[in-house]
Amino acid sequence: MDDLLNEFLTETNESLSVLDLELVKLEQNPNDPDLLGNIFRLLHTIKGTCGFLRLPRLEMVAHAGENVLVKVRDGQLEVTTEVVSLILECLDQIRSILAALEQSGGEPPGHDGRLVGRLNDLSVGCAEQAGWTDSDAGPVAGLGLPAESAATALPTVDDVALSKEPGVTSQSVRVRVDLLDHLMTLVSELVLTRNQCLQHLRAQSESDLHAPLQRLDRIVSELQEGVMKTRMQPISNAWVKVPRLVRDLAQDLGKKIDLVMTGADTELDRQVLELITDPLTHMVRNSADHGLELPEERRAAGKPETGTIRLNACHEGGQILIEVADDGRGLSVERIKRKAVEQGLATPAELSALSERQVMQYIFEPGFSTADVITSVSGRGVGMDVVKTNIEKIGGTIELSSSKAEGTKIVMKIPLTLSIIPALVVACRTERFALPQLSVLELVRLPANPEQVIERIDGRMMLRLRDRPVALVDLRELLGADPPREEAPASDGTPASGRTAIISQVGGGRVGIIVDQVFDTQEIVVKPVPSILSDIKLFSGNTILGDGSIAMILDPNGIAVAAGHVVTGGRRTDAETSDQVGRDGEALSILVFRSGESGLKAVPLSLVARLEEIDLGKVERNHDQFLVRYRGQSMPLVRIGSSGELGKEGYQPVVVFANGGRPLGLVVDEIVDIVEGHMAIELAGSRPGCLGSTTIAGQSTDIVDVGYYLSQAYGQWLGVERRTGGGSGNMGRVLLVEDSPFFRDFLSPLLTTAGYEVTAVEGATEALELCAAGKNYDVIVSDIELAQMDGFKFAETVKQSTNWRETPLVGLHSHADPSDMARGRPVGFDHYVARSDKNAVLRAIQSNLTQVKGAA
Amino acid sequence: MMAGTASRDVKDVIQSHAIVSFWLAGQQFGLPIGDVREVLSSRPVTRIPLASGAILGSFNLRGRIVTVVDMRRRLGMPPRESGADGVTVVVERGPEVFGLAVDCAGDVLALAAEDRERTPLAVDPRLRDFASNFYRHAGHSLVLLDIDRLLNHNHPNGD
To answer: CA A553, CA A528: separation in Å to the nearest integer?
Structure first.
């Protein structure tokens, strides 16, 4: 196929996607002349190019569509659903001809007389019958005339109006993907070479090359980042088809659906993007078909007639978080149970023992569909299991929550890129391997005599970890025969001392992989395994390590399968999570560490992004601040609990907090453990940086005030932020009502850092005093469990009072209780989120603010 | 596969005159010069656990990972005496790079169509599978190998 045609195909397909979007927008804003102009221009370009390339069939279809648009532009035809539907149909026809064209290099034989006739009917019909608007009138529904009859008399298009081109096109170029891949390879090579140079430099105490190599170091890092970015695309590319899809579904199903998309500019790797597009579409389709109710049903349930589907994407600690949510009826547990029994997936007795959340996991089972009727929309057996498999294949996770009142929400976490990932470098015998960090949950050092902690059940090794069993796999056994030319290992059957079990997330469960040694984490460039090795399921790829040597990348899923620990479905993990939720109060995972002179310290694990070890030699000292380069940006380090001094060499553990793109590292002496427990503050702290103390595993432990250290590290920035109030950084005013000092101190710096002006009060009474005093806020965030007056009462009062009635209310809960949620809505909570989920809190605030601004 | 065969024939016509030759257990082999990226002295490889015996391991060639195939094992020949250094013929197949470990490299030869021989009757069946043509050059036989068939992991003689 010649280049011209190729170019035309790419360009036209792009234009068609834009047209889909724009037409849906036009349907909602029928009087927007810019929108119409753009649609017109795009279709006209397609028509023009078809003529130029001698593609008469395409040209005729495009031309007929364009004629309808001419009438719309000239005000002779109004934008109605029928007009838009017909033009969309016209685009679909163009698309299918293009597909055939791409296959065969020429236009397929056939006629589009009927479609063209209907289009012409519309454009000609209205000329005679100006002002025609009604949807039921004949022209559309009527059968088309033969194509040739009407086309001749139509006016030609006024080309002058079309000459203005959007300026964006001149600022971007089309680059072939394989060229980018090649650049990426070259950069990886450059990185390796730089590492070798730096290693060489370190061996010499004095060298003239010191300064230039430092510069090279920086430039290479930036170059790597830059090239990475070229492969990134906004997630909106995966969402392009969604508005059209939702519109068509709403039409087909007779539902009213609003689509809200936020975070469309979140970028991710092209390769990942391609892999998630289909699962996303599938989930949106599910929401529209199964999730949202018909308008009547919604009205009967006291909901607005129009249902909402929300798509949201954001970055979170090196991952992309994507949410698909609807405010429909939620999953019917009863129906899932019935189907599970019908399809032989479980017995009624088994099901009765499961919690609602556990039952819901059945929708991820292969072949499961709750749709009673198989429609063209969904219920064809290609279900959520495929979605789950696809997401897990790329190292992501998928979680589902659903309730009758709130609808269904699916949260996916997927890696930013598949080509460069952080990985843990481990060794087994003399061989080194890389294990993707994303699947590593924690490392457990085994004692010299592992039999003390390892239990054997049915010949399988199990490790009891915080009272839950984890299946163990010895990598040595899996790797089979010893590599040749190796000095004899401890061959008496007992593994040498100090081996480590890497607890990994596998499908729905956990598996501990025992390795001999754990080195460090590295950003590795993932390269696929050559096809000749593809039958070895243990490896997901191979990579070149920093020193230039090659390591295979271990695939925890493959390892679990190879070891016979086949973990299916998500029920197992869910049993674990619901376990955690099920315990009364707030059982949190708590990170316990030791630092400074004064004993044990703790932070909730949910706040921690990563645990790292940093090389003190690499720390830059800037006045009294310590900075280290971390994942492409500079991260301030705070020494916790001592004089604040930092050694000059050696390695030190660091607790990394990812704070909305501004990371903070707390330098500690020793990571002690991760425990499950409560964080009730028993003694309020008097020292700065300490919220108080609590008892963890029988020991008094200080709870660290992360907010304090955040503001210490970014204090200057925060200061500026406050002074400029009303400037670009000021996102809005938030009133925080929270009686727990821990969460108050946790949330207010978080919100401040995110750019909000925060007023924090202890209880509803104080809040109402502020209300009486005439203060105004953009959003009120309130705990629902408050001491004197609970959150519901507070919400009710607020919604009845005069001046805060319009202010959005976000409710914070400590554990998801459906009855609370059902209570929250009617009294006026616009959102209902877990207070320990900082991102959910931030998102809820932000979406409320945008709603307010949108309405204003 | 039909289309593949057709295009290979075309390629043969264009490129069959230039081949890179190498030796394995006294037998001369060749690969079309277009398939060969470079010839290196053999270098240490990282073993790939669980890989079949014909896969020696991999090494880093300027940022690309080269998977090394022991050609003697692949072709069912006796192993080389230990201590004898070989050379690695680096070939590209799509996005993948392979190193063929052979005994020693020969010249780049120009073969004429009339040098082509009928497939000898007594040839090892494995060799017959991997060979695209048999030639006679400077008094001895030369087997032109088909890289696609050689590196196809589905091949029954994958070892």
So the answer is: 9
* Residue A144's pLDDT band (cuts 50, 70, 90): very low
Whether A214 shows a pLDDT value over 80: the answer reads yes
Over the stretch A728-743, which tens digit does the pLDDT of each residue have? 346 788 888 887 766 7
pLDDT digits (tens, 9 = 90+) for A513-562: 999 989 888 778 788 888 888 788 888 888 888 777 899 999 888 888 88
Specify the long-range contacts of residues A86-90, CB closer than 8 Å, at least 24 apart: A86/A118, A86/A119, A86/A122, A86/A140, A87/A23, A87/A119, A88/A20, A88/A23, A88/A244, A88/A248, A89/A115, A90/A61, A90/A62, A90/A64, A90/A65, A90/A115, A90/A119
Among B48, B71, B154, the residue to mutate for chain A (most A Cβ within 10 A): B48
Q: Which residues touch A259 (CB under 8 Å, ≥6 apart)?
A: A242, A243, A246, A308, A309, A311
Task: Give the tokens for residue A731.
Answer: 């996102």
- Cβ distance A531 to B96 less than 8 Å, yes or no, reads yes
Phi and psi angles of residue A833, each rounded to the nearest 5 degrees, phi first? -135, 160
Q: From CA A166, how far away is CA A159, in angstroms rounded?
A: 16
Distance CA(A318)–CA(A521), nearest Å, equals: 14
Who has greater pLDDT, A443 or A662? A443
Of B46, B51, B63, the CB nearest to A533: B51
For residue B46, give the DSSP letter. Answer: B
Q: Left (φ > 0), alpha (ψ -120 to 50) or beta: where does A399 sit? A: beta
CA distance A429 to A447: 18
Residues 6 or more apart whose Cβ sits within 8 Å of residue A748: A707, A736, A758, A760
Reported ipTM: 0.82
Residue A480 contacts B, CB cutoff 8 Å: yes
Contact A840, A851 (CB under 8 A): no
Structure tokens at A298: 């919604």
Q: Which of A189, A532, A551 sits opposite B63 (nearest CB)?
A: A189
Predicted TM-score (pTM) above 0.80: no
Identify the residue whose tokens are 């080269």: B66
Q: How far apart are CA A399 and CA A386, in angstroms?
A: 14
Tell the residue number behind the tokens 């929550």, with chain if given.
A401
Q: Are strands A732-737 and A779-783 parallel, antiparallel or unpaired?
A: parallel
pLDDT of residue B99 exceeding 90: yes
Spatial contact of A681 and A643, defined as CB atoms under 8 Å apart: no
